[in-house]
Amino acid sequence: MAVRAGWAGFTATLLGAATLFTAAFLAAAFLIDPYDTGRSPLGLKEGVRPQGPRTALASRGRDPQFSGAIVGNSHIQLVSPERLHEKTGIPFVSLIAPATMPKESLATIGWFLRHHRRPPPAAIVVGVDNYWCTADPALPNEKPFPFWLLSASLLDYLGGLMRYDLIEELPRRIAYLASGKAERARPDGYWDYEAGYEVQGYHQRPEIRARLERPLEAGGGNADGPFPAATRLEALMASAPETALILVRPPVYVSALSKPGTPDADADAACRKAYADIAARRPHTALVDWRTDRPALHEPNLFFDHSHYRQPIARLLEADIADALNRLRK
Amino acid sequence: MLFNSFVFLLAFLPFALALHWLAERFAPKLRLLVLVLLSLVFYGWWDWRFLPLLVLSIGINWLIAEAFQKTKAGGLITLAIVLNLAVLAVFKYFNFFADLAGMIPGLPAPKLDVALPLGISFFTFHHIMYLTDLRRGQAPRYDLVRYALYIAFFPQVLAGPLVRWREIMHQLDERPYQRPDAAERIARGLMLLTFGLAKKVLIGDPLAEYANPVFAAAAAGKVVSMMEAWQATLAFTFQIYFDFSGYTDMALGLALLFGIVLPQNFEVPYRSRSIQDFWRRWHMTLSRFLRDYLYIALGGSRHGLPRQVWALFATMALGGLWHGAGLTFVAWGVAHGLALIVALFWRRAGWPMPAALGWLLTFLFVVLCWVLFRATTFEAAVTIYKGLLGLAPIGTGFKWRALLPAAAFAIIGPTAWNLVHKLPPARWIAVLTGLLFVIILLKIGEDANYEFIYFQF
After folding, report:
1. pTM for this one?
2. Which three-class secondary structure string do you get for A90-143?
């Protein structure tokens, strides 16, 4: 009987210890708020330590100093929030995350809207690249993304906090919170990848330039709809009818533009129409379409690859976005 | 669902244990039915569309067994075994044989685009074991619920161990929580589950990061350096051990929680001193199955040397094919078969084999064979072999940190089963096991690294 009680006690201790350790870890993580989501009841220092944009955008997205947001992936990444601010007067934050698709962008927009209810955001600029043309209602994404961080559900968030890498992150977070000198991640989220052009030898390697001239042909695509990403975006923006929405079809190198009369062109036209229709239907909305033949798209030195442009094109695109925004606000 | 998932550990398992305890306590007659239903939920969670396959497989085999009881017509059992193998062939081997046929000019090679139902290789063998023993007059009749539980018991339905009916069926009629050692079994079951999870999640999974990129590079036709080849091959050697033996430990621990003792599957295989010894220690329940239901059926050792050599070769080649529908798996099985044949001749010649040399040769052979098992094509395997043999650049940066503890654990031991059964019910052990369980949960929760580099457009 004694042995039985001993083993029963062992099990109770094991389960009790596991429960206590879990609760203690979750409580500590919740209070320390590793990614500055604002969920902690403690009045913590603003911002996060320098880190990747996926985890940093929760903090940036709720920063009240910004009333405009740029959302998307590396195809809109070089659009500078600072320069948009100069041209429009709207303080912008870049909430881009490289290698993301509509699902991540929609979650990010949802987070930004939830944290900017009163007053509602002045403007949201969304990079609607080819991924936004999918017909798949699940909007599948390819790379890991912390949806739990942006979730409206507390349970999702607590589940997400059960992560091994927080064992490393929590001490770093405490160091950031405790030190007055700790470096803070750039609040406006701008991340310039222009330096990679030289580092990766784009200017020296002719084979990379040659790759650029190869036409990109998908052999068609979603020419008949539906466009669930467009539908979801429109529904999401319905909660902020006064917010200006700029839909940007990002620039691509000329060889990536579809040839007229091909199935690719049909699919591209159908997708463009889906977003043009939103721009026509929804007040304070404009489509800035750089996926059309323009002189700048013929210059190979202004591109990394078919869909990643360099700073000179970003400047032109910023000007178009600012013009569109200023027109909407007149 | 996977054992190493939140949904299993934090939702299904507590719910299943509570329901099972209620049934055992208040409605013992329903206990087995509850276990069957839980097992079906567990299986269907992955993809409910395959649930009918498992249910039909149980129902048809049971009906045939019933018919055999009445008629004693051996042809019925043959029919059932052929049907089981045919289902396995369609789901697992159709495209493999279609590819083989496609190599013959002029023959059409139709492809079947179906997902492989999880655990089909295992439950097919369970049916075969029972039905064969039924025809031999060794197995009794079981009602549908008991038979269904034998086939679908959730701790072992997906990846074994391959349980013989006589190892498990007598346990089903017990009142597991009325046993004097019930509390000890539950405690040791929890420890075994935790240690099995730790083996997979904390030791096995990190090794995959050493192995996967190198094998992927080989598959992509890239050159693999000597350092990379050894790093990847050794990493996979230990990864597959910790992954599979960890899974078995979890299965054994889970079964203990429900009052069932399942057979062990691994006994420090990398300590083997001969290839025969290795197969007595590696995936032991499969080795037993292959020996009892294939090797002996093919003639075994009682019909002269040539027949024995053939039986060994064919058994291991088919055993290789069972592991995966590809010629690389067959080659892996054939290599092991040939090694067993060489070892047979060595023993018959009475030549000596010093223990240390025997261990070294066995370990090296097993390690080299894992390349065939892991590589997706023969070309990729050759690339890795070139690296291993120094027919490629030497390379730099051999990653060893995760290899060292894995090698020490795998070779020196102890096994999780032995460790768990030696530990006393001390409070500090319970607290440390609880802490280990939470660390594992955190590791499972870490679904992805969000800090990946994205500059190589």
Report:
1. 0.86
2. CCEEECCCCCCCHHHHHHHHHHHHHCCCCCCCCEEEEECCHHHHCCCCCCCCCC
